[in-house]
Design a protein that fits this description.
Largest sheet: 8 strands, parallel, barrel
Shape: globular
CATH topology of the largest domain: TIM Barrel
Distance between the termini: 39 Å
Number of domains: 2
Number of strands: 22
Structural class: alpha/beta
Strand order of the largest sheet: 1-2-3-4-5-6-7-11
CATH class of the largest domain: Alpha Beta
Radius of gyration: 23 Å
CATH architecture of the largest domain: Alpha-Beta Barrel
């Protein structure tokens, strides 16, 4: 087996923590409202503590995002922040502000410092600056090409380097979006981005002297002019791994456990396959695992240099996938599986369970829709109010039934 980088997954909920661990993440990053890009975080301090304990019990690490750009007024709150950090005991702090880094070194000298992508590190010189300031790892900007990464890796052998391999892309420079602040007052750097780059725009020409406004007609490629496709480096994963990064990061701090588990599952399987036999590694197998996820289409973005013309989806911001989440296994006994729904299910649907460390998954055709609450038989069932269905053991192959455990995800064709 060849040495692999760490696979780093996001966790915006406690279920995402559990799912990332189950599907093979080596480390998890999380944040809290108030001192990171987590303004809409759905996880409490105590839940992060529980997640960290679960991760540590499984031999995984957890990094706490502390990557806001702090104003003077916010330093008055730092004593409380210190208490939270000591309570959580994370394995590293992810920061982007030089002042916050200095504060962390003074108040938490025993915790390693990781420099966030928000610092926009694009060169070996910047890496060396942060290394001299006390950082143990730098997350490189998404705008760094593969060739540039190789050069930075060669010039900076004594510090860990992390790169993003999958997730949403900003049309602006890594998280500093003007539109969100200007139009809605929601700061992207605080995790409150309104995603105005996904909105549909009409372009209006205003005649300077008369003030007459006249719409500019748009063709099919002019509707969603700022809508970037999602980053996916799976097609180039062999090149990524050969260049020896220390950590591969998945974007998704506000994503569901279905997204987290599915992406971790695909990259875990692909990385392990490459390590076993790099000469015969075939990424197309693992791209199929990612194609079931809702996405805006995929791009390798800046991997080969300037972004290619197909890196944006000008037609729509909707998902291009033909699949969607069916549900999550919440219970299992010797006779049945209980699946909590994430989308509507109807009689005759075929669902596929995403099994950890198993590329193929388990397919099951739903002969009936059995309401888990009262065992009633329904033609279909929606996902509202924690709706769940029962799947009897005899609908599933005996060997496959044993593979399905709580937290396993399922998807279906739309």
């Amino acid at each position: 087996m060849m040495k692999l980088p760490e696979l780093l997954a996001p966790a915006g909920t406690l279920d995402a923590f559990r799912t990332a661990i189950l599907y093979g993440a080596d480390a998890i990053y999380a944040g809290l409202p108030g001192f990171s890009m987590r303004a809409r975080a759905k996880i409490s301090t105590d839940e992060v503590k529980t997640g960290i304990e679960l991760a540590h019990a499984a031999g995984k690490k957890v990094y706490l995002a502390f990557n806001l750009f702090a104003h003077d007024s916010e330093y008055a709150n730092m004593p409380r922040v210190s208490e939270i950090i000591r309570y959580l005991s994370p394995d590293a702090l992810i920061v982007s502000d030089p002042g916050v880094l200095m504060w962390a070194k003074e108040n938490h000298p025993d915790i390693p410092i990781h420099i966030s992508t928000q610092a926009n590190i694009c060169s070996a010189a910047s890496v060396k600056f942060w290394q001299a300031a006390g950082a143990s790892l730098c997350v490189l900007a998404r705008e760094v090409s593969h060739r540039e990464f190789v050069s930075i890796r060669r010039a900076c052998p004594d510090i860990k380097l992390e790169i993003f391999v999958h997730g949403a892309m900003c049309m602006a420079y890594s998280g500093r979006c003007l539109l969100s602040n200007f139009i809605t007052g929601r700061p992207a750097n605080r995790g409150a981005c309104a995603q105005l780059c996904r909105w549909k725009y009409d372009v209006i020409l205003r005649e300077r002297e008369s003030g007459i406004e006249m719409p500019i007609e748009e063709d099919a490629r002019g509707a969603y002019i700022m809508n970037s496709k999602d980053l996916c480096l799976m097609p180039r994963l062999a090149d990524v791994l050969e260049s020896a990064p220390d950590s591969l990061k998945i974007e998704g701090r506000n994503r569901s456990e279905y997204y987290v588990g599915s992406v971790v599952h695909a990259y875990r399987a692909a990385m392990d396959a490459w390590a076993r036999d790099p000469e015969n590694f075939n990424p197309s197998i693992y791209m199929e695992m990612l194609n079931v996820l809702e996405s805006r289409g995929y791009t390798t973005a800046f991997f080969d240099g300037p972004v290619p013309s197909d890196a944006h989806n000008y037609d729509s911001a909707r998902s291009v996938s033909e699949y969607h989440a069916a549900g999550v296994v919440v219970a299992k006994n010797d006779s049945e599986i209980t699946l909590e729904l994430r989308n509507e299910i109807k009689t005759g649907d075929e669902i596929t369970f995403v099994i950890p460390h198993d590329v193929c998954g388990v397919r099951v055709k739903l002969k009936q829709i059995i309401n888990a609450r009262d065992n009633s038989i329904l033609p279909k069932m929606s996902a509202g109010q924690h709706g769940a269905i029962k799947i009897p053991r005899d609908w599933v192959n005996a060997v496959d039934f044993d593979k399905i455990v709580p937290l396993v995800l399922a998807y279906k064709h739309k």
